[in-house]
Amino acid sequence: MSIGKQVTWGGRFNESPSDLMLRFSESVSFDFRLASYDVKVGKAHIKMLHQTNLMSTEEHESVDQALDKIADKIKKNEVHWNPALEDVHMNLEQLLTELTPHAAKLHTARSRNDLVATDMRLFFKEACDILIQKVKSTMQAILKIARANPEVIIPGYTHLQRAQPVYIGHHLLAYIEMLHRDWNRLLTVKDNANFSPLGSGAIAGSTLPINREMVAVELGFTDESGNPQITSNSMDAVSDRDLFMDFANACTTCAIHISRISEDIIIWNTTEFGFVKLPDAFTTGSSLMPQKKNPDSLELLRGKSARIQGNQQSLITMVKGLPLTYNRDLQEDKPAVFDSFDQLSICLEVLKGTMEGMEFNKEKCADAVKDPLLLATDLADYLVVHKVPFRDAHHIVGTLVSMAESTDTPLDQINNEEAAKIHPALKEGTWKCVFNLERAMKMRDKPGMPGNKPLALQLSKWDQILNNQ
Ligand code: ARG
């Protein structure tokens, strides 16, 4: 790495930084990703400098054209990033200087502190949009399998013990609810990112007659009516990393949802459960055991959530003890954010792909849901309808279950005489009507329940949201 005298801040220095320091402190190896935003911000900034007479028309045109050339090079991946120039901002300024002498005016009334904050806000707005689209496609894939399996019922679990029957559609729509909250969380981050910090300078703004609102409009930091939105405190604007933490948190929560969904499917995919068959495209084999087909995509999704969570942890720890305002520690904010974005993007795609190729084994599901114990609560409700207080009903059915267990008889096969000994309401035998899945599902008909009616309503609601927007 060659050490050139720092053109940007080298004035007060007699010696250049050591090679080791350059290697240690450079950030262009990761913040090069901000290059296109940096150029966009540069173009808006010089337009404003021109309008406020801080740049002549000739100077503005020359720098503007040079920035366009650089934008083109960035698009074609032709820029050679020099770590000796520290970061993307100084690399671009150097490039510009090679193209036009008027580049020397670019950084008027601007600091890398407000610049990097602005670049990152543009990044967050775009990143949230991209992730929201991916969340939405994953939800669409989940909705599709829910709709393709309308009659499949499985046991729902608590404590990983069979609890009550649910339509698989209801279970899958739970995932859609989780992802929809992620969508909203990302939308909030996007809205909060929509304020321009440019003009905050290094910490205390500028004495020059700049126009912050104009730059904000130019860069799209506007409300629905097109009014500029700018940050209100220069010190906060250059040191605030809430968006970084909020974005990382939104990514973490989404990744945790993905991890929990993956865990469900991993369990369903075991030979012991056998509820689903996973697509070959998202599973892998064992190098030793020829029979194996492992749910690696889902295991990696679970694993990646730890990494994404780690990124959030890095950010909150980094920020917690920092005095106002900018401290160089903050340069380390970007790898965590970029990694969370990249990893969550691919996780969403992989979950979608796995879901799209997943098939339910209807026989296995039907087998599991045959267990009459799943309807023990329905029997307690039956007794409640027959005027037995719920706590007593719970106890009666508990005793019946215990009898079933000790006599090795399925709950729905217990003889009526025996049952009547526990409670007279069990005498006539109509209590056995509860052991009917169709009845059980039909009766769970209030909003939010897994019954036929509310499920149909939810499916069409999500269809409206996801497929007709
Ligand atoms: N590369 C730096 C970062 O990402 C840019 C800001 C540098 N500011 C400074 N005062 N050294 O944080």
Structural description of this entry:
This protein has 469 residues and is mainly alpha-helical. The protein folds into 3 domains: 3-108, Fumarase C, Chain B, domain 1, CATH 1.10.275; 113-367, Fumarase/aspartase (Central domain) (Fumarase C, Chain A, domain 2), CATH 1.20.200; 371-467, Ribonucleotide Reductase Protein R1, domain 1 (Orthogonal Bundle), CATH 1.10.40.30. The chain is built from 18 helices and 4 strands. It has helices at residues 19-25, 28-31, 35-51, 57-75, 88-99, 112-148, 168-193, 212-218, 234-239, 242-269, 296-320, 333-356, 362-369, 376-385, 390-406, 416-422, 437-443, 452-467, and strands at residues 153-158, 161-167, 276-277, 359-360. A two-stranded antiparallel ribbon has the order 1-2. Helix 3 runs antiparallel to helix 4 (57-75) and helix 10 (242-269) runs antiparallel to helix 11 (296-320). Arginine binds at residues 27, 31, 87, 112-113, 116, 326, 328, 330-331. Arginine (ARG) binds at residues 27, 31, 87, 112-113, 116, 326, 328, 330-331.
Radius of gyration: 31 Å
| Subunit organisation of the chains | single chain
Overall pLDDT: 96
Which small-molecule ligands are present, each listed once? Answer: arginine
Q: Runs with pLDDT <50, length 5+? A: none
The main sheet orders its strands as 1-2
Q: Please report the total strand number as a whole number.
A: 4
Question: What is the fold named in CATH at topology level of the largest domain?
Answer: Fumarase C, Chain A, domain 2
Helix share of residues? Answer: 55-70%
Would you list the SSEs in sequence order as H and E?
A: HHHHHHEEHHHHEHHEHHHHHH
| Classification by helices and strands | mainly alpha
Strand content: under 5%
